[in-house]
Amino acid sequence: MLIAPPTFRRLVRARELLVSEAHDALTVRAIAAQLRLSPFHFIRQFAAVYGRTPHQLRTQARLERAKRLLAAGTPVTEVCLELGFSSLGSFSALFTRWVGASPTHYRRSVQVPRNVAPVVIPGCLGLMAQLPRNSREATRL
């Protein structure tokens, strides 16, 4: 599908509005009106250019923000409320479907412990760990 350059520029602007935290309240209909396109034409052209609908892009952006907040140690309920989800259950189900892990499991798997000092292994010891343990392993390499 060929798209005229002015329409393409409007779609780029729409993408910026969709992923912007400041414009979360804008509906697809409102963005289409700003671009002087019908909502249905806007959705079709947007999907043709970006490979996903405006709703899918906005959902992905919200879940990326959720992942950042969870990695920072924010409780799941606070993340849900901050991102404007209607309920904890709907947020958890959507997060699990898109990310492949529940918000709590994701948070536990990526959260960096705050009071644990990083383990530093000197270079020579790190190289020794790569050496084969015995002569049979050395011959297989």
Write a brief caption for the model.
The chain is an all-alpha fold. The chain has helices at about 5-20, 30-35, 40-50, 55-70, 75-80, 90-100, 105-110, 125-130, 135-140.
Topology:
Elements: H1 5-19, H2 28-34, H3 39-50, H4 54-71, H5 76-82, H6 88-99, H7 103-110, H8 123-130, H9 135-140
Description of the structure:
With 141 residues, this protein is mainly alpha-helical. It folds into two domains: 51 residues; 56 residues, Homeodomain-like (Arc Repressor Mutant, subunit A). Helix content is 66%, strand content 0%. It is built from nine helices and no strands. The longest helix is centred in the middle third of the chain and has 18 residues. The N and C termini lie far apart (53 Å). The model has no long low-confidence stretch (mean pLDDT 82).
List keywords for this structure.
2 domains, mainly alpha, Arc Repressor Mutant, subunit A, 141 residues, 0% strand
